[in-house]
Amino acid sequence: MTTLVRNAWYVAAWSTEIDQELRRFVLLGDPVLLFRRSDGRVAALEDVCPHRQLPLSHGKRIGDTVQCGYHGLTFDTEGKCVRVPGQDRIPLSAMVDAYPIEERHGIVWIWMGDPQRADPDEIFDLPQFHDAGWHAHHGGALHLKSNYLNVAENLVDPAHVSFVHETTLGNAASENVPVHVSTEGAEIVAWRWIRDAEPIGFFKAFGGFSGNVDRWHYYHLRLPCTAYIDFGSADTADEIAEDDRDSGTRVFALHFITPVSENYTIDRWMHLRNKAVGTEEASAKMDAMFETAFSEDKAILEAVHQEEQRPRKRRPIRLAIDKGPMVYRKRIAELLERERTEDASGPGNGSYVFHD
């Protein structure tokens, strides 16, 4: 049974990945053709010709249409076949799916589910994207041989940082600090503060901290699989309050998780920061640290996924720190169940009268 939620916005690519060339991507197990139209907008089509199944990405552009490289069937950006060489009649079934696309902040978002439900207002955003006091920087793309659920769970789990990222994003000072979890809103949030402790490697390098700091991690997970981590540090002597994080060195690490298949995931990551605004030297320095940390996650997640494919001798255990991930799995299951069924009850059904 699939774990892939279709009625959601996913990141298909960075804007810089898409140009006038025909490029094939695989999203939620489906091949997708992406290219820029003559007006600069991104077009997204099912990447398979309905005639002999050749990927349309093996064909060529003719203006804003795509000609199949096998027998010349030609499709517009709405997925409609507009030409069949050798015959005038175009079969109604000669079509491919066209997917809704939105492009914002240098990110190409795609909707792979019911197009009637694609609401652009649901696309992920943060106020800091629009604030001149913050610097936005696109990072890279982490390719993981893992189901996306494990990747997303890792991003609402502050407890792993002390052990997986000992030299970059965590250290031993946080091992026994309680994790707070909130599951009341649309996002699952897990967080903790570590007071009067040695700074982590990331903020020694980027923030220039040498003495003890107060530091925080707030992990936000938005269904189905977009995560952002609000983390930072301030001198312990400043005694900053929890709602005064902007006065410290504050970073948002954003993770746009795209399931390629049940066994393969791409995590495109970027960051927003309130220090060294406009300085690309700082961006490069932070990229190097993030790449080190994320390679540590990759090793863990791929090993977990590989073991999950083996027969289990016993049931896995759950700990107190698993509250966020457990709620996340339950919510994903609910989304999948709604996609598997259709609500045909309709209004005005007199057979049942509900009082709740």
Automatic annotation (TrEMBL):
Output one GO MF annotation: 2 iron, 2 sulfur cluster binding
State the CDD domains in the record: RHO_alpha_C_DMO-like
What InterPro entries does the record point to? Answer: Cholesterol_7-desaturase, Rieske_2Fe-2S, Rieske_2Fe-2S_sf, VanA_C_cat
What positions belong to coiled-coil segments?
Answer: none
UniProt entry tagged with the keyword Signal = no
Q: Which Pfam families match?
A: Rieske, VanA_C
Q: Which SUPFAM superfamilies match?
A: Bet v1-like, ISP domain
Sorted alphabetically, which keywords does the UniProt record give?
2Fe-2S, Iron, Iron-sulfur, Metal-binding, Methyltransferase, Oxidoreductase, Transferase
* TM stretches of this protein: none
Every Rieske domain range? 9-110
Q: Name one GO biological process term.
A: methylation
Please report the name of this protein according to its UniProt entry. Vanillate O-demethylase oxygenase
